[in-house]
Design goal:
The complex is a heterodimer of chains A (about 110) and B (about 120). Chain A has about 110 residues and is mainly beta. In chain A, about 0% of the residues lie in helices and about 55% in strands. Chain A is built from no helices and twelve strands. In chain A, the strands form three sheets. In chain A, strands 2, 5, 6, 10, 11 and 12 form a six-stranded mixed beta sheet that branches. Chain A is globular. By secondary structure, chain B is mostly beta strands. Helices cover about 0% and strands about 55% of the residues of chain B. Chain B has no helices and eleven strands. The N and C termini of chain B lie far apart (about 35 Å). The mean pLDDT of chain B is about 90. The chains are: A mainly beta (about 110), B mainly beta (about 120). At the A-B interface, strand 11 of A face strand 5 and strand 9 of B.
């Protein structure tokens, strides 16, 4: 069975602070994909990143960065110099193949205060 | 490209009535569509997987007679909540998987908020 755990239910920071969201996953598959999505108050899921199990390179995209540690089954997400617009719920998800059904973590609500 | 729409975006209905939600892939063909449900302040839970031209596969605990799914074409899947009750009030999100190539990934619709009175 697949499982995704996001231990932090809510994080509150002041603008310009960095914030790191933890994601730990469980799977018996050797090939799998990990995702991060942002869900703003409007509800629509915004795709942030997809990473396959064979690519452990960390990635940076603007103020966003991701740290994939296969040895600890973690795929953490950091927002650098947070902004108010970053306030949202962030979901980590695990899937078998990029297009197969996803198992979502419980989500972490990020509140960035001005 | 890769846009998925849902209609309606929100709906309010009376208890006991049925509600149909549409999920459309606007610029690609989707052999598979997924339906998720999200209760307030909770995560997304997969309800069913819908394949074009065949019966949907439901996740454990999801009543297939209550949540009817039809995937009659490569661009449209519908979810009908039959005899809706207040506990069915939720945010329903669909996603679509494109055929082949670099589009072998899911694209999410904007969601439909259902409120049953």
């Amino acid at each position: 069975a697949q499982k995704v755990t996001q231990a932090q239910t809510e994080i509150s920071v002041v603008e310009k602070e960095d914030v790191t969201l933890d994601c730990v996953y469980e799977t018996r598959d050797t090939t799998y994909y990990l995702f991060w999505y942002k869900q703003p108050p409007s509800g629509e899921l915004v795709f942030l990143i997809r990473r396959n199990s064979f690519d452990e390179q960390n990635e940076i995209s603007g103020r966003y960065s991701w740290n994939f540690q296969k040895s600890t089954s973690s795929f953490n997400f950091t927002i650098t110099a947070s902004q108010v617009v970053d306030s949202a719920v962030y979901f980590c998800a695990l899937g078998r193949g990029a297009g197969n059904k996803l198992t979502f973590g419980g989500g972490t609500r990020v509140l960035v205060k001005p | 490209g890769a846009v998925v729409s849902q209609h309606p975006s929100w709906v309010i209905c009376k208890s006991g009535t049925s509600v149909k939600i549409e999920c459309r892939s606007l610029d690609f063909q989707a052999t598979t569509m997924f339906w998720y449900r999200q209760f307030p302040k909770q995560s997304l839970m997969l309800m069913a997987t819908s394949n074009e031209g065949s019966k949907a596969t439901y996740e454990q605990g999801v009543e297939k007679d209550k949540f009817l799914i039809n995937h009659a074409s490569l661009t449209l899947s519908t979810l009908t909540v039959t005899s809706a009750h207040p506990e069915d009030s939720s945010f329903y999100i669909c996603s679509a998987r494109a055929q082949g190539g670099s589009y072998n990934e899911q694209f999410f619709g904007p969601g439909t908020r259902l409120t049953v009175l």
